[in-house]
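An example makes the point: we print one protein in full, the chain in one-letter code, the fold tokenised, without further comment:
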Amino acid sequence: MSIRNRIAVMLIPLVAACATPVMKSANEPGGEAAGSRPARPAQVTTPARALVDATRKARLAEVGVTTIEASDGSQSLRLPGAMMFGSGSTEVRRGAYPALDRIAEILIAEPAAGAVVEGHTDSIGRELFNQELSLQRAEAVRQYLIGRGVAEPRLAAEGRGESRPLEDNGTPEGREANRRIEIILR
């Protein structure tokens, strides 16, 4: 082994010792107990966020709300029209209050989030009537959420009428699925 290699081998422990932090004993000022480390703030990991989302979804499902995950990472909350409104009506039914209250809680807890309330109808009746009805229903839901403490500028209302059906309007089941409110969280 050459002298240069021997010196390099002897310097390794010296350099390593210089890089090792000196720990003070617990009795010295500023010292820590053996084996202890300064506390680090907890960080929310992806699984923890997923758990929160799963809990939120379960709480929403309890009151009849379906959560839909979009490919862009946004979420939509779907509320069946039969739960929300009577036929041809724009007045929110009392039975929808628990679902809307939960949604308001979520929006209040996430102050940076906004939402678009979309009203949807089936294709029975005149298209213009359905368009206006869907907008009025979306606005009624928006006003309910504002009344529950969600800041007005964070909410928008849009009427989609019969333009975005989920199912075929040729069957009673399809028409029922198409009558809905969707709240898109952003």
Notes: The chain is about 40% helix and 15% strand. The first strand starts at residue 66 and ends at 69. Helices lie at 3-19, 46-62, 81-84, 97-109, 127-147, 172-178.
